[in-house]
């Protein structure tokens, strides 16, 4: 069963945006790390239902522009358009290879899997894979599968008691969406709802 992994919020100043959100919602935010191959960096807020918010920005635009990662291109395009805010979300799976087979058999175009990694402030390395199903009629969330190191803070006190309860997203065709992801809108740790733009609620 898929789970909501994280919300991606693009910002020209992720530290400032994360700090503002944290103060407004009584949420602890922490520095994430740098994605050296993509020219990006992030700040994070973790929640008790195994989900998190990522504020992402660019520290090297030349590297970011050259990236073939669809998410990084979204970040570049958003900042070029002076847009800041939620732009994407990720659904977590531990069966990415089965999704790749499913996409092939169902002739669903996709990009990936794209490997990713970053060094945490503690020095440990996080690794993951990203898979991007594609549809010409709408922007779809991507799938993420984490490696051997779990993406949680070493200090449990940095995990907020609140949860990401609902993600509202522009889903043009619900049945098609269910077919692509082989899931219902009720996920393992939260719920998807249909809206005209990407938003989320915590409680």
How is this fold's topology laid out?
Blueprint: E1 3-10, H1 14-25, E2 30-35, E3 40-47, E4 51-58, H2 61-66, H3 70-80, E5 85-92, H4 96-105, E6 110-119, E7 125-133, E8 142-146, E9 159-160, E10 164-169, H5 174-181, E11 191-194, E12 199-202
Parallel strand pairs: 1-4, 3-9, 5-8, 10-11
Antiparallel strand pairs: 1-5, 2-3, 3-4, 6-7, 7-8, 10-12
Q: Helix count?
A: 5
CATH architecture: Roll
Query: Would you tell me the structural class of the helices and strands?
Result: alpha/beta
What name does the CATH topology carry?
2,3-Dihydroxybiphenyl 1,2-Dioxygenase, domain 1
Protein name: Glyoxalase-like domain-containing protein
Pfam family, one: Glyoxalase_3
Domain Glyoxalase-like: 4-182
InterPro entries: Glyas_Bleomycin-R_OHBP_Dase, Glyoxalase-like_dom
What would you say this structure looks like, in words?
This protein has helices at 14-25, 61-66, 70-80, 96-105, 174-181, and strands at 3-10, 30-35, 40-47, 51-58, 85-92, 110-119, 125-133, 142-146, 159-160, 164-169, 191-194, 199-202. By secondary structure, the protein is α/β, with parallel strands linked by helices. The chain has one domain (3-202): 2,3-Dihydroxybiphenyl 1,2-Dioxygenase, domain 1 (Roll). The strands form two sheets. Strands 1, 2, 3, 4, 5, 6, 7, 8 and 9 form a nine-stranded mixed beta sheet that branches. Strand 3 and strand 4 form a beta hairpin. The longest helix has 12 residues, at 14-25. The radius of gyration is 16 Å and the shape is globular. It comes from Virgibacillus salinus. InterPro entries: Glyas_Bleomycin-R_OHBP_Dase, Glyoxalase-like_dom. This is Glyoxalase-like domain-containing protein. Residues 4-182 form the Glyoxalase-like domain.
